[in-house]
Design brief:
With 154 residues, the chain is mainly alpha-helical. It has one domain. It has two helices and no strands. α1 runs antiparallel to α2. The radius of gyration is 33 Å and the shape is rod-shaped.
Length: 154
């Protein structure tokens, strides 16, 4: 193919098409990263909500346990039982069980928060990976377009 005006015009359109394609690829990668960042922010918000919920549940559990232990003490005292020996053993066991429950609630909340935090990190990583891949794909598209245009003049 010679360098006549029509060939040059076709070559220019090929270059423009290649540039447009590369631009689209880059914008797609940037959009994917933005979406991943939004998803990561949502996951981080969910992690904070899970921590807050667990803390509230722990406080609620401890408050209810305290009320229950107080009612048990009052019932034991009202029935004439001394606050010693087996009554204290039962109260101590109840208090220990209530604290174990509170710790399990906190642990479950921490695990849920960790899952969301990991989800956020993975989403951000995926967004960066997609943006990087779009740069490579766009460069490849430009090189391919350039090679096609040059090849048409040889």
């Amino acid at each position: 193919m010679s360098a006549d005006p029509i060939s040059l015009g076709v070559g220019a359109f090929k270059v423009a098409g290649g540039v447009a394609k590369a631009t689209g690829i880059m914008k797609g990668g940037a959009s994917a990263k933005e979406a991943a960042d939004v998803n990561a922010s949502i996951a981080e918000d969910n992690a904070n909500a899970a921590r807050d919920k667990a803390s509230l549940e722990v406080m609620r559990n401890r408050r209810l346990a305290s009320k229950s232990l107080g009612a048990t003490r009052a019932a034991a005292g009202g029935s004439g039982l001394a606050q010693s020996g087996s009554v204290l053993d039962v109260l101590a066991e109840s208090a220990a069980t209530a604290e174990e429950d509170a710790l399990l609630i906190q642990h479950a909340g921490d695990m849920e928060a960790t899952r969301y935090t990991n989800e956020a990190a993975l989403s951000r990583f995926e967004g960066k990976r997609r943006k990087s891949a779009s740069k490579i794909s766009a460069a490849s598209s430009l090189l391919s377009t350039g090679a096609n245009v040059i090849g048409s003049f040889l």
